[in-house]
Amino acid sequence: MSRHRGQADFLVHATSEAEVGWQVASATLEDGWSRRAAVISSPKSNTLHTSIQLAVIGGGPAGLRAAEVAAAGGVRVTVFDAQPSVGRKLLVAGKGGLNLTNSEQFEHFATRYTGPGQPAGIWHDLLREFDADALRAWASGLGVATFQASNNRVYPQALKAAPLLRRWVERLRRMGVGFAVNHRLTGIEPGAPHRLVFATGEVVSAEAVVFALGGASWPQTGSDGAWTGWFKTLGIDCHALVAANCGWRHPWPPEVLASADGQPLKNIHASVSNHHVTSELLITRYGLEGGAIYQLGPALRGMLEPAITIDLKPTFTHAQLVAKMESVRRDFLDAARVRWRLGTAAHTLLARRVWHDAGALAREVKHCVIPLDGPQPVAEAISTAGGVCWHELDGGLMVTRYPGVFVAGGMIDWEAPTGGYLLQGCFATGTRAGRSAAAWLQSGD
Ligand SMILES: Cc1cc2nc3c(=O)[nH]c(=O)nc-3n(C[C@H](O)[C@H](O)[C@H](O)COP(=O)(O)OP(=O)(O)OC[C@H]3O[C@@H](n4cnc5c(N)ncnc54)[C@H](O)[C@@H]3O)c2cc1C
After folding, report:
1. Is 235 in the pocket of ligand 1 (CB under 6 A)?
2. Predicted TM-score (pTM) of this structure
């Protein structure tokens, strides 16, 4: 089967090297531009019907990976994206250094992924197909060397996403993958073939489709979660997209913010119900941010009156803290700041009350409860929980009620903490969906 058979003549190979970045000028587009412009300038009611083999809708890491795997399997692939360029959330992740994956032990790694109704062992299976080593080797194949930080997190040496994305798109184009950017999908009609309707007015028929539309965080990067409406209309069960890996609100009094806004609480032990983590928090103008609250988010979401309990000095027992204050008779907090080595944020939290004895102060240090008003808005979260329910999917990530329709990435109902697990999950599900789509197309089902 020829990968280029019937290549749609209006489709643009619009994602050029110059486009991979925020300031993308349409004028940088090459020969495909005039053809695309001809389509766009036609009245929206004059829909153009065209047929392709595999449509990947969404050019984030999950969609690009699915396209790569399917194209390597001999499938003719076109990636459609609503934005003027692909991979915009990946570029945002690059601003934090691009934590690609994590080198922790495999068995533990696979337990990081949670979601209601997740089939037992699914992540072992997905990650066995494309694990952290495979992701590092893949990056290396693009000429992007990676390193492992002391906390097991893996980053590109350059701590940037743009070079990796640029080379990835170049490779995909060399493989024959077509790109149709500025193509917002507005409707789907599953069938044989599937009909895809775009905001441009174009209608595309595709033998198979991989949806990789992302969750709903950072909608300015393109993933706005609008697809949940169409999927529900099609009878595909989806859980609501909610903020994950996000800050939680607490109304700090002005005096706390005056001294502690932006200050970290380092090496703390934090608990929610029977969930415990050792990590850090950041005091912000709206509440709390940071690894500890991200990891405890799923437990917090399940509470009617969410609250986090912090042990500010987890390496000392209550008795050890009191012993360090033996000779102190007054100004307990001032003394504790020095003797217990309290940072600015911890000191500020404790200064909300007046302390008359070391025992009570030590109890508060070991058990500081902060009630929370709720999560930050989903648009500001790093990721979302919710999405296409697992019971709708088979092991190949195909929607069982619509043969030939596959899903990948953040739009499936899984969540994971920060630390490289999110991108690894997108790459692993993209790999599975791309491979399954290729096998399905080639089986002639
Ligand atoms: C600030 C920030 C920092 C992050 N840092 C990290 C990190 O260091 N490490 C890590 O592992 N993860 C990180 N992440 C998370 C990571 O970026 C996401 O998990 C990942 O991008 C999700 O990939 P995806 O392919 O599922 O979706 P997305 O990357 O969201 O891509 C979805 C694509 O679908 C397109 N699309 C949506 N709707 C339509 C439509 N109707 N028609 C056509 N196209 C459409 C969008 O334009 C977009 O290009 C970070 C996220 C944020 C917000």
Report:
1. no
2. 0.88
